[in-house]
TrEMBL record:
This is Uridine kinase. InterPro entries: P-loop_NTPase (IPR027417). Gene3D superfamilies: P-loop containing nucleotide triphosphate hydrolases. It comes from the Bacteria. It comes from Microbacterium istanbulense.
Amino acid sequence: MTTAEPVTIFDSLVGEITQHYHRGRVLVAIDGADGQATHGFAESLAAAMRSRSWYVLRLGMTPGAASDIPVATLPHPDKYRADEDYSHLRAIVAKFRESKLAVDPSVPEVPADAMLIVDGRFLLRPELRGIWHFGVWLEGDMHLRDESLEAQVQYTRDSAPRAAADAIFDVTNAASPARVWADTC
């Protein structure tokens, strides 16, 4: 792949998202087992959205990930439990939707046309699917620790995030993500 191809991939994804959600406050989830891959993909998508003059906020669910939004407590990224508490994430989303998520003193309110891109694991679980306008599933070759691998297997088996995603990308080569078309027609 040439270096221009990833840019084309993100431009195409931006076009797809904005075709369906061209106005309003849009919520996008980037889900996958590899925290570095989800973070890098979300950052590239945010850059592509900003190049189209969108106001974009970022929230990384992986501990230590850079985020535009102060985060107090989020679920443990290596465990998948049905009783996981996502109330803090839901509160952030509610504030974003209501334009009350002030993260920049120069912008006291979230503009009417804005995007919140959240990356992390287990975001396309059934309990959270209804809050996203657009979901991306990232897959690829990665080595996970036993506990993390067990959680990922349980998540993909029980929650079918691949089937819930609006777009699927293979990030085996993170520098050149490839769109996976998994149409059933």
